[in-house]
């Protein structure tokens, strides 16, 4: 089984990665990181790999296609994930009318439970 999380260099992404790492460690599961294709620099991925290795978390990186919601759902389905972890940000009063199209697609299409965290 696996825990799937997207890798984004944002406060929400950092919070999601922290929660996913803790869940993977607690459950003894593999952590699968879906990378945002254009955003992730090689040096950043190397540092992330070293950090997770030092933490003793079994992990692997899956390159994204640019649509993080689709990438997370597809990766969760293909890996038989037991959990997807996403980060949410505060929304404006108008933005509160909708959760966010990406988060909504993940929640509705996910093949497993979804843990939403905020910074």
Automatic annotation (TrEMBL):
Instruction: Offer one Pfam family short name for this entry.
Output: Usp
Q: Which residues form the signal peptide?
A: none
Domain named UspA: which ranges?
Answer: 39-118
> Could you tell me the superkingdom of the organism this chain comes from?
Bacteria
Q: Which InterPro entries match?
A: Rossmann-like_a/b/a_fold (IPR014729), Universal_stress_UspA (IPR006015), UspA (IPR006016)
**What family is it from?**
Belongs to the universal stress protein A family.
How is this protein named in the record? Nucleotide-binding universal stress UspA family protein
Origin organism is: Isoptericola jiangsuensis
Native organism taxonomy = Bacteria, Bacillati, Actinomycetota, Actinomycetes, Micrococcales
């Amino acid at each position: 089984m696996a825990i799937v999380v997207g890798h984004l260099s944002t406060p929400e992404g950092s919070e999601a990665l922290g929660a996913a790492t803790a869940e993977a460690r607690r459950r003894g599961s593999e952590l699968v990181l879906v990378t945002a294709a254009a955003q992730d620099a090689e040096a950043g991925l190397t540092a992330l790999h070293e950090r997770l290795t030092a933490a003793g978390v079994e992990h692997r990186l899956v390159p994204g296609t640019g649509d993080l919601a689709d990438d997370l759902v597809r990766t969760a389905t293909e890996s038989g994930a037991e959990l997807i972890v996403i980060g949410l940000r505060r929304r404006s009063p108008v933005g509160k009318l909708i959760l966010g199209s990406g988060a909504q697609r993940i929640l509705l299409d996910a093949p497993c439970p979804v843990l939403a965290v905020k910074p």
